[in-house]
Amino acid sequence: MSAPPSSTPSGFGARLPAWLRPRDVELPGLGTMRLVETTVLVLVGLLLAIATINDVVLQTHVNHRLVADLRTWRQYTGHDYKNLSVEQDLRGHTTRDVICGNTSPGPPKERTQLCLAMTGPVVAGRREARSGWYLPPKSEDLHGKRYGCFGVAKDEGLCSP
Fold first, then answer.
1. What is the DSSP letter of 145?
2. How far is the C-alpha of 117 from the C-alpha of 12, rounded, in Å?
3. Cβ partners under 8 Å of residue 155, min gap 6
4. CA pair distance 1, 14, nearest whole angstrom
5. Which residues contact residue 125 at a Cβ distance below 8 angstroms, ignoring those fewer than 6 apart?
6. What confidence tens digit (pLDDT) does each residue in 59-106 have?
7. Starting at the edge strand that comes first in sequence, how are the strands of the sheet with 85-88 ordered?
8. H helical segments located in 8-151
9. What does pTM read for this prediction?
10. Which of 56, 102, 57 has its CA nearest to residue 77?
């Protein structure tokens, strides 16, 4: 299976094994092994290209959705705050995102927060806020800390009584 090297190799070719060095002539045979290897390499490259494109498109859609969520929160509250917290539903594989921000100016989580749960498609750069709740200052978004639920959150009992 190995053929003599083309000529006295120099440089990089000198360090390669004989079977990897460039040849002056092709070995006799039909070349089916080369055809199979080339086909497999092309298919693997095509699979990787499709997976990369799919991942980029998915991430672009997620980013577009999150920008719409931030814009919706700012429209609902009338506050143009930059420090908003965004939580995506990663376990349920849904497009439900929760955006929380202070109801009055101040450092993040130092004031009462309003959290809105966004669902549905992006329409005109915004999404629908189907539910929400308030959180006391300096608290994490835990079910026991929520109060003043409205929308679907109230119907599902996602707030403390």
1. G
2. 60
3. none
4. 19
5. 67, 68, 71
6. 999 899 999 999 999 998 998 888 898 888 877 677 889 999 998 888
7. 85-88, 97-102, 113-123, 126-135, 147-151
8. 12-15, 32-77
9. 0.69
10. 102
